[in-house]
């Protein structure tokens, strides 16, 4: 059976996102319904312990082109994004966070890069990556401090030249998504680093657009996640050293 001809797939990893998803999915539909291109929205349940699955199923009739992957076991954000990326049909595949902290309309700025032949386009909250990037509603100071220190380590170990690897709004051409995500091994927080490291290793052209990022104070990222991320970055460096192209 031939795959549907879809221009854009939006993948939303969801772990205990029952409160945030309704507003986000309605905003996605509001934006995407106005576009001339075909699209799909894929919500992937990462074994949520709340009623995320019920919320999504109740919205399937109201949100156009919504697909739901309802996995019962928690495997991590990296695993969840990978699952959605490899299940998607879109010629461009974008993953976006369930809180819409980087509004879906940022895709308007991504499209010109893809039209110019870029293989991947990411959002950054750091003006050193893209002029005009900002955190309209900033994270807590300790998150910003840890993030800044951690990024220097990330650049040294895996992804030189990118100051914000963790913004949850990244898009890929279908061939790039399939090659990159088929090769990823990291299932949790540092998966963004691995994805970008692989994109660079495979020689893909990466564009960066500025994010106007609005922090959600209900974010599920905990203090210890930063240290787990740094350990995973060390593992990524070892995986890259073993990678044969």
CATH topology: Spore Coat Polysaccharide Biosynthesis Protein SpsA, Chain A
**Portion in strands:** 15-25%
Architecture, CATH level 2? Alpha-Beta Complex
Structural class: alpha/beta
Shape: globular
What's the β-strand tally? 9
| Neighbour order of strands in the largest sheet | 3-2-1-4-7-5-8
In which range does the helix fraction lie? 40-55%
CATH superfamily assignment? Answer: Spore Coat Polysaccharide Biosynthesis Protein SpsA, Chain A
| Quaternary class | single chain
CATH class: Alpha Beta
Which value, in Å, is the CA radius of gyration? 17 Å
Largest sheet: 7 strands, mixed
Helices and strands in order:
Blueprint: E1 6-14, H1 21-32, E2 39-46, H2 52-59, E3 66-71, H3 77-87, E4 90-96, H4 107-115, E5 120-124, E6 134-137, H5 141-157, E7 169-173, H6 174-183, H7 191-201, E8 206-210, E9 212-214, H8 223-242
Parallel strand pairs: 1-2, 1-4, 2-3, 5-8, 6-9
Antiparallel strand pairs: 4-7, 5-7
Helix pairs in contact: 5-8, 7-8
Task: Describe the fold and architecture.
- By secondary structure, the protein is α/β, with parallel strands linked by helices.
- It has a single domain, classed as Spore Coat Polysaccharide Biosynthesis Protein SpsA, Chain A (Alpha-Beta Complex).
- The protein is built from eight helices and nine strands.
- Helix 2 (52-59) links the parallel strand 2 and strand 3.
- The longest helix has 20 residues, at 223-242.
- The model has no long low-confidence stretch (mean pLDDT 91).
């Amino acid at each position: 059976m031939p795959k549907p001809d879809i221009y854009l797939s939006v993948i939303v990893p969801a772990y205990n996102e029952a409160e945030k998803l309704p507003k986000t999915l309605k905003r996605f539909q509001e934006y995407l319904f106005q576009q001339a291109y075909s699209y799909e929205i894929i919500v992937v349940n990462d074994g949520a312990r709340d009623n995320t699955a019920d919320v999504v199923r109740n919205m399937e009739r109201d949100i156009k082109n919504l697909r739901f992957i309802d996995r019962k076991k928690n495997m991590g954000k990296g695993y969840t994004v990978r699952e959605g990326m490899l299940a998607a049909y879109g010629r461009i595949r974008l993953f976006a966070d369930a809180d819409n902290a980087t509004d879906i309309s940022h895709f308007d700025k991504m499209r010109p890069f893809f039209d110019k032949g870029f293989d991947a386009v990411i959002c950054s909250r750091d003006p050193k990556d893209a002029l005009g990037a900002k955190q309209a509603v900033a994270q807590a100071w300790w998150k910003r401090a840890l993030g800044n220190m951690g990024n220097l380590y990330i650049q040294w170990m895996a992804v030189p030249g990118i100051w914000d690897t963790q913004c949850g709004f990244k898009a890929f051409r279908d061939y790039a998504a399939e090659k990159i995500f088929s090769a990823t091994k990291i299932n949790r927080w540092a998966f963004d680093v691995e994805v970008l490291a692989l994109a660079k290793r495979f020689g893909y052209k990466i564009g960066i657009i500025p994010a106007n990022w609005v922090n959600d104070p209900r974010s599920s990222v905990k203090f210890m996640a930063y240290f787990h991320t740094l350990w995973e970055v060390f593992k990524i460096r070892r995986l890259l050293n073993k990678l044969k192209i």
